[in-house]
Every structure is written in C-alpha cells, then in structure tokens.
Amino acid sequence: MPIGGRLIHWGDIRHYVLAQKVGAARANGLRQVDGPLGGFRDPDGYCATAKGAAVLGYDCRWEIHLSQIALVNEVISPSDTEVSKAQRILIATSHAEASGKGAASLDGLLIDYASIRQAEVLVERTSQMATA
Q1: Which residues, at least 6 apart from 56, have a Cβ–Cβ distance to it below 8 Å?
Q2: pLDDT tens digits, one per residue of 57-69
Q3: pLDDT tens for each residue of 77-93
Q4: Domain match, 12 and 57 both
Q5: Per DSSP, which regions of the chain are E strands?
Q6: What residue numbers bound the domain in which 26 lies?
Q7: Are 16 and 10 in contact (CB under 8 A)?
C-alpha cells in the first residue's frame, strides 16, 4: 500500500541497530547479548524476538523470569543437527588437509573458509556450554 510514494515495509524497526551492534561486537571479539522482553507472560513474543536476535547473530538473551530460560535455550542454542554438521565440516576439512588436498567438500558442496570458521565457533561454543 503506497504512502507518500513509498511502499510500507513492516520489518522490525530495531533491525538496523541490532545488526550494527552484532557487527561491532564481532569486530572486537565480543559476544553480543540481546535485551530482555518485559512481557514475561508472553512466551510467543519472547520466542519471536529471540529468534530474530538469533538470526542476526546474537549469542544469548537476557531473561527476566524463570519461565524464559527454557525458551531462550530452545531458540538460541544450536540444534543437534547443526552441531553434527559443524563437526562433519571440521572432519572433512581435516581429512582434506591430511591428504594434501587444496579444498574440502561435504555432501557434494565445497566447504569455504567462512563455513569452516562458523563450524569452529559453533563446536567450540557448544563445548563451552557443555562444561558450564
């Protein structure tokens, strides 16, 4: 629907600022924590905003009520499938290096440096969570 010659975009108005915070944190080797949602009796709202933060790269989220702990763990923690794939990426890369190959692949796809780095971070953080 046009308003003043522009189309309406109903995206999250905080998206730009939240993305900038993640970028600045990452550039300085810091983890980024998303703020709380005051409506602790709104689990759907909490999950929706936590998913948005996770997509932008936030590492965790403040909780203001005990009921939110399980929600944030479910939304932000990597799934077993994601952890398994990250481990498989690292194994495939290790095998490629050991055999003198200049590139590695997994499931028919080339593994690039960004994928390797993301896998390393995911596996390391998962390991840290397991020992915490």
Answers
A1: 15, 18, 19, 22
A2: 888 889 999 999 9
A3: 888 999 999 999 999 99
A4: yes
A5: 2-3, 6-7, 33-34, 60-61, 104-106, 109-111
A6: 2-76
A7: no
